[in-house]
UniProtKB/TrEMBL annotation, chains A, B:
This is MarR family transcriptional regulator. Pfam families: MarR. Coiled coil: none annotated. The lineage of its organism: Bacteria, Bacillati, Actinomycetota, Actinomycetes, Kitasatosporales. Signal peptide: none annotated. Keywords: DNA-binding, Transcription, Transcription regulation.
Length: 140, 140
DNA sequence: CCATTTACTTGACAACATGAAATATCCAGG
DNA sequence: CCTGGATATTTCATGTTGTCAAGTAAATGG
């Protein structure tokens, strides 16, 4: 039910969220590029740095087709950042896992993601807590 | 200056912003797809629905190369959603403008962008105002 | 009036994304 | 045990987005 026209305040907040999204993306792509990674490659590498996982699960997390992941992991693998391991429990499955160098790259990537510190630095701890709670409720 | 490790609260907020960004994107792509548009096409059409503008300016707004815009506008034009007009003041310039049908599509697109209403509905007006102010300050 | 700059397009190329088909493996019911 | 159906991954064809370099047309300023 589309309710009726959203009120001006809601529209303003939506507009601001759009700006946050645009800025986040820009900074994410820049951070990735500074490590010669594309955004998609950076996302996959970051995911794997938390926990190795089957190709299929990567696709689920990124909400795309598994056949797409094949190519992205291929490129990461050809650069020595990721490797495919057999799953002892299921020979159909290939576990993608970061190499040592992949882990280091993921760490440096995390550090260069300044969207964290820079824009939030202007907010006090109390304000950040309020923001956290509001975002949490927004995300349901 | 990477300052030192960000505190847990900041990290939590950053994580939440990441979730908001992911969700916003997902919904945006879905809304675009429901009108047989790609995300990029939807962004350009939305931009033009506010105000016709030269190709060059579209590229600046989208932060990409002008040569990229040529293709996106080509596809929108071949579907009758956008047209190129000469700029009376400068014959090098082509103004991209939405057609009647393009305007209608842009309107319907806006309506289906429920990221506005749905998640924000859980917040009171006062809370939305607080959120607005915090986001504004975050964006500097 | 000529050199330079600007706006746009074109062409070559890479990454990303989807969908369909192929391969290998698992698994459950007979 | 065996077979038929489901599952995991890859390959291929195709389309969109993105970059960069080169080309054309038009403006602009010495």
């Amino acid at each position: 039910m589309p309710s009726r026209r959203a009120d001006p305040l809601t529209l303003e907040v939506v507009e601001l969220i759009g700006s946050v999204v645009a800025r986040y993306h820009e900074e994410y792509e820049d951070a990735a590029a500074s490590h010669q990674l594309t955004g998609a490659q950076a996302r996959v590498l970051t995911l794997l740095s938390l926990e190795p996982m089957p190709m299929r699960r990567i696709a689920q997390q990124l909400k795309c087709e598994p056949s797409n992941i094949t190519g992205i992991v291929d490129r990461l693998e050809s650069r020595g950042l990721v490797e495919r391991r057999p799953d002892p429990a299921d020979r159909r499955v290939k576990l993608a896992a970061p190499t040592q160098e992949g882990l280091q790259t993921a760490d440096r990537l995390r550090e260069s993601l300044d969207f964290a510190r820079e824009p939030l630095a202007g907010l006090s701890a109390a304000e950040r807590a309020v923001l956290r709670d509001l975002l949490k409720r927004m995300l349901g």
